[in-house]
Amino acid sequence: MTQLPASFLTRPIAHRGFHNLAAGVPENSIAAFEAAIEAGYGIELDVQRSIDNEAMVFHDYDLDRLTGQTGPVAQCRAEALGTIPLIGGTGTIPTLAQVLDLVAGRVPLLIEIKDQDGALGPSIGPLEQAVADALRTYIGDAGVMSFNPHSIAKMAELLPDMARGLVTCDFDKDDWGTVPAATLDRLRDIPDFAATGSGFVSHDHTDLTRARVQELKALGANILCWTVRSPEQEADARKTAHNITFEGYTP
Predict the structure, then answer these.
(1) Separation CA 138–CA 188 (nearest Å)
(2) What is the domain partition of the chain in residue ranges?
(3) CB neighbours of 194 closer than 8 A, spacing ≥ 6?
(4) What does pTM read for this prediction?
(5) How far apart are CA 152 and CA 165, in angstroms?
(6) Is 150 known to be catalytic?
(7) Residue 235: count of CB within 10 angstroms of its CB
(8) Active-site residue, from 15, 19, 150, 203
């Protein structure tokens, strides 16, 4: 079990950075990460793969929602992605390496590797390799996580000493249209925790009373949760979770 560094449990974690679109600070932007650092929060971010196998800090699979362009991130080169402005701010899509240079160990960094298989299956590898390459010489507290247990198993091979965990929820079939029902049924009970050498889960804050989450906590796993959006939600989540990932308010 690869436990999270203690810093992940002592300060709230800003979901996609401490973003505020109304103030010109988009999610997963350099400005959002700078704001989190200034406020003393940990940072959660997402990575997608460019066509030339660079880890890009971006949540969606497509450019449409967050930029003025369209099309899949995975069909663009990293250099081109780095010139695309984010809607609502002055920055562009950063690489993971650029974010690591910015953070430089000042706050803990939680990296979600977005599923590239499409069905939470075994067709993975290039993005995990890119993340490992970027993190290999990083000096600072960092952890990796994914909904796809195959990704975390791969990270165990590539960076065995890196804290790693699973992103989990109730895996409702209505939320996972491309994933087979049998896979969702299996993942619901978080069966891959031990096999992947995980030390934590980041679980949906509305589902923290799930028996398996309580069992993992009793076994010594760190319990994080996503995504808390009010003081009331935070108070409820902290009945189980060791820490929260938050957005939309100031904890």
Answers:
(1) 33
(2) 6-188
(3) 1
(4) 0.98
(5) 7
(6) no
(7) 10
(8) 15
* Number of Cβ atoms within 10 Å of the Cβ of 229: 13
DSSP reduced 3-state for 55 = strand
**What is residue 117's DSSP assignment?**
S
Mean pLDDT per 10-residue segment, the chain (251 residues): 91 98 98 98 98 98 97 98 97 98 98 98 98 97 98 98 98 96 98 98 98 98 98 98 98 97
Q: Which residues contact 195 (CB under 8 A, 6 or more apart)?
A: 149, 153
Among this protein's residues, is 203 annotated catalytic?
Answer: no
**Following DSSP, what letter does each residue of 208-240 receive, concatenated?**
TT-HHHHHHHHTT-EEEEE-B-SHHHHHHHTTT
Catalytic: which of 19, 59, 205, 242?
59
Contact 120, 52 (CB under 8 A): no
CA atoms 151, 164, 112, 34: torsion sign: negative
Angle between helices 149-158 and 126-135 (to 10 degrees): 40
CA distances for 124 relative to 36, 39, 135, 218, angstroms: 30, 35, 18, 31
* Residue 226, pLDDT score: 98
Half-sphere exposure of 16 (CA within 13 A, CB side): 21
Q: Counting every residue, how long is the chain?
A: 251
Topology of the domain covering 6-188: TIM Barrel (3.20.20)
Cβ neighbors of 8 (< 8 A, separation 6 or more) are: 42, 108, 110, 141, 143, 163, 200, 222, 224, 243
